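Exam review. A common question shows you a sequence with its structure tokens and asks you to describe the fold in words. Practice with the pair below. Do the first one on your own.
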Amino acid sequence: PSFEAEYKEETTGGKPDDYLDRETLRANYVEYNKKVQNAIPSNRLLTFNVKQGWGPLCEFLGHPVPEGIPFPHVHTRAKLQGEMFVLELITWIWPLAIILPLAGFVIIWKRTMSAVPV
């Protein structure tokens, strides 16, 4: 399956046709978080929002908060959409890297063989 199909399957709890339905996505998100919270002891699990910055993360890990280093916010919506586009592109382009040279070889071979007198 393509990356997109697999992603839709995972984010919708096995209902990829409901990929654009916010309630389906939200319900699966909540259900997934419940599974994680039930599977991991609370003293080993940090429920964290990156908007909280370094504080809760560093406290949980037992490290001092880095001074003068801003917390990295790397996954904006536009960036994630761009990354998904690149992954989808790779999914469709890599077969061409195999097929096109092979097709070129076959065409050249056929032309060469048809030019050779029998």
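Now try the second one, then compare your answer with the model answer below.
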Amino acid sequence: MRVWVFDRLGGIASDQFDINENGLRFVSTVLGFLWMGEAQLGFDPTTMTAEDERFIEIERNGSTERIVIDEVM
């Protein structure tokens, strides 16, 4: 098995390992991903969801505005 992680700059891979010979490393890898937050997993932290509506909030003219995202491209 080889684990790949990608971000805006590119990707990086772990060393290849056999999950049958190194079960502890496999379990540690899976648990590491399970314990990561949404931002660490690559989700955009500026996008929020409430009441089945996806939106971002911006500051403009001294007040906060909510821009609803109708479609995802």
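Model answer, second protein: Residues 4-68 form one domain. Residues 34 and 41 are 10 Å apart (CA to CA). Full marks require stating both points clearly.
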